[in-house]
Amino acid sequence: MTGSGWPSAGDRGGACYARAREGSTLVVALLLLLAGTALAHAAYVLAMQELRIARAAVDVLQARVVAQSLTRGPVAMIDSLVWRVDVGRSAVLREGTLARGAWRRRVRRLAPELWMIEGSATSGRATQRMGRVVWLMDPVARLAAARGVVETEAPYPERGVRTEGLRSPPPPWSAGRCASWRPVIDSLYRARALPPTAPRGGRGAGSGEPWLGLLDGEALMRRIERRVSGSGAPSPTERRGACLTEDPWNWGAPSDPGSRCGSFSPVVASAADLAVTAGQGQGVLVVGGNLRMSGASSYYGVVLVSGRVRLEHGARIYGLVRSARLVVEDSARVAGSACAALRALDGARSTLGPSVPSPGSGWLGPF
Amino acid sequence: MMGRRGVSVVEALLGVLLGFLVLGLGVALLARQRAAVARLTARGEALQTLRVTRYVLEAELRVGIPGRDWVVAGGDSVPLRSFRGVGIGCAALGPTTVAVFYSGIRLPRPEKDSVLILGADGDWVAHGLVSDAPAPGVCNGTGEVPQAWSLADTLRDAALLLRVFERGSYHLADGAFRYRRGRSGRQPLTPAVLDDGSQALMGLPDGGVALELVPRGVGGPWAGFRRGRVAWGARR
């Protein structure tokens, strides 16, 4: 110790004190740095976690939106697959890539007329699949579901309904006009005959509405743009050497298959009572009331009527009839024709489809 | 000597004063930091609650049909069929048994699950699920092993699609978004950060659902987040 009482730099204790002060500063500084580093690291980890969560949420959302849009998008492509995909099989319609993933759209045929559209998308690590059930009218399945040439709510005694020509082309059609449908017709009716009349079955029974498969009257009317009302005489109309399909009373020319309107087979609707006083037509006729045909008029195809069908004065229907009641006068006739019905339904697929959400199915998921 | 002692007292006092000042600043800083952390946590939890509620409700309700699979009850709950997966029927193994290729977010559990089955006529019919077991050797050719599902009732039609679901309900209760499976208790899916008196689930005429959530004590910045449409009916 010196006289001043303060330790001098040369003292042993003073040296220790100085060293201790220097050492603690360094340690404290290091500890502070370490703590700061730990805090910064923790903040970085938390931020990265938040970023990953946010990115994952975005990936899931993106994948889900894409998958959903794939099942919602145009389903017209199914139409071209109808004859190629067997029941129980599936087919990939389209596939592609996203910025950070891929997508695929496929269809599975669950039943002749029921399909599942499946969209799957991957974005980052997130994969989402969505499905949807749709109904697509298949002419063969519709014919196979028929219980009789005429199906009515009230019992009908078969008078005026013929089934002899069910497997043959209706007059004046040649055999060639039905050649492509021949194997189907033979397979359907080789073992069993279609009765002339039967009580109306399926979903439409007792509803008082025209039905076709899963399509009720409202759905049918909503899809059919060609409308007629009141009374009229359908006849084929040509202009400048072409069939004038815009004319609502042009229902094709079934009696002259070789003409320009010979293959024209429209879907026609009337929201109320309809009277066909003469003429000819083919296709699918939907009437939200009563239908009266007279004056030697003829119709080839499928007739769906919510009320009564009355045929008089030699009127003819070749194909299938679905109505609440049927009245056929002596000179008139309903002649069952599988070929006329198949051709009409086949021509109606683009109008009545190409797909209808299956009632009650909504979205399918999760997969 | 005297001067140095006086300086020491002043230095000591100054040091103590500075110490108190630093301490005070530290305490104030700590308090503000804690408040900031609490506020950030509350906002984070509120955001998480809003996100989870929207996400879960949207995912659950979108795959159901309003009125058939779910309804809005009492403005604060949604009883529903909570779908867990989809199976594709490949063969009927008996009047009550069907072979199924299944995929979903979890395996079926017969003790709590039922099945909604699509028949060839386009109708969906609900059946109880009795048991499930692997069915090797059935529906060959796909490379997958189907499951044999035994159902409580006889199948009246072909089983084309089978949707597995459990009965449950979502609730806005006790400050949180909760799920109740069957008759068990309501389990929270989010932190309890919601204002009890201000939550609302509203059924819309077109089958959609409007959702209003008000995080407790979070305030204005969340006004834009708290209300929205989470499911669609007619728009589908």
Question: Could you explain how this protein is built, in words?
Answer:
The complex is a heterodimer of chains A (367) and B (236). Chain A is an alpha/beta fold. Chain A folds into two domains: 9-136, no CATH class; 140-352, no CATH class. Helix content of chain A is 28%, strand content 28%. Chain A has six helices and 21 strands. In chain A, strands 5, 6, 7, 11, 13, 15, 17 and 19 form an eight-stranded parallel beta sheet that branches. Mean pLDDT of chain A is 85; it is low at 1-5. Chain B folds into two domains: 47-76 and 174-231, no CATH class; 79-166, Beta Barrel (Thrombin, subunit H). Chain B is 26% helix and 34% strand. Chain B contains one helix and eleven strands; from the N terminus they run αβββββββββββ. In chain B, strands 1-2-5-4-3-6 form a six-stranded antiparallel beta barrel. In chain B, strands 9-10-11 form a three-stranded antiparallel beta sheet. In chain B, β9 (200-203) and β10 form a beta hairpin. The longest helix of chain B is centred in the first third of the chain and has 61 residues, at 2-62. Chain B is elongated and about 105 Å long. The relative contact order of chain B is 0.16.
- Strand order across the biggest sheet of chain B? 1-2-5-4-3-6
Number of helical elements of chain B:
1
Q: Could you tell me the strand content of chain A as a percent range?
A: 25-35%
Element-level helix/strand string of chain A: HHEEEEHEEHEHEEEEEEEEEEEEHEE
**Helical percent range of chain B?**
25-40%
The secondary structure category of chain A is: alpha/beta
Largest sheet of chain A: 8 strands, parallel
How far the N terminus sits from the C terminus of chain B, by CA atoms, comes to 94 Å
